[in-house]
Amino acid sequence: MTKEQILQWLQAFAVQIEQNKDYLTHLDAAIGDADHGINMERGFKKAIAQLPTVADKDISTILKTVSMTLISSVGGASGPLYGTFFLRASTDVAGKQELTEEDMLAMLQAGLDGVIQRGKAQLGDKTMIDVLSPAVKAFQQAVVESKGMLEAMQLTVVAAELGMKDTIPMVAKKGRASYLGDRSIGHQDPGATSCYLMLKSGLEVLETKL
């Protein structure tokens, strides 16, 4: 995946967030503060505005810039968690202008590890981890089987979508949603949903290059 595709990925994610802002906020209204879509849209609009200033830099610098913007402009838990994801991801691709499948795996794994460390959530807690964890596992398996970037991302997004839907019957154990206990059952987690949209955006960029 080239640096240009990474930039397109971030822009595509921002578009997805904008298009799904009301949906994400609707999901969050059921089990959270009803602000996930609003916060994410505001943060990514600011992050995208910063991209022209780093478009000539390496992938690490681009991701780090997105991270810093999100941390400073997104409210609630989303800013620190997504900011941590992009910050940790950036550390594993320092100096790179293009990512191999192994690079992408390292980047996604670092991002996942960062979110786990920051949010203290585990698989099954009804959070974005329930999307990120199976997604990274799917990408890792694709790398083991020597699949190309496109097929690896296709498998990753399939796993991410399943992970997102799997949050519906879960009891939330982290964040505002955890206060609801069993009443959180039956609702799809908004953070898991935006995380799925992030990975889906990356796949769409790869598919448009075919």
Automatic annotation (TrEMBL):
GO molecular-function terms, A-Z: glycerone kinase activity
GO CC, one annotated term: cytosol
Biological process, per Gene Ontology: glycerol catabolic process
InterPro entries: DhaK_L_YcgS, DhaL_dom, DhaL_dom_sf, Dihydroxyacetone_Kinase
Organism superkingdom: Bacteria
Domain DhaL: 4-204
One Pfam short name: Dak2
Keyword terms: Kinase, Transferase
Residue ranges crossing the lipid bilayer per the database entry: none
PANTHER family registered for this protein in UniProt: TRIOKINASE/FMN CYCLASE, TRIOKINASE_FMN CYCLASE
NCBIfam families: dha_L_ycgS
Protein name: Dihydroxyacetone kinase subunit L
UniProt source species: Iningainema tapete BLCC-T55
Lineage, opening ranks: Bacteria, Bacillati, Cyanobacteriota, Cyanophyceae, Nostocales
Chain's gene name: dhaL
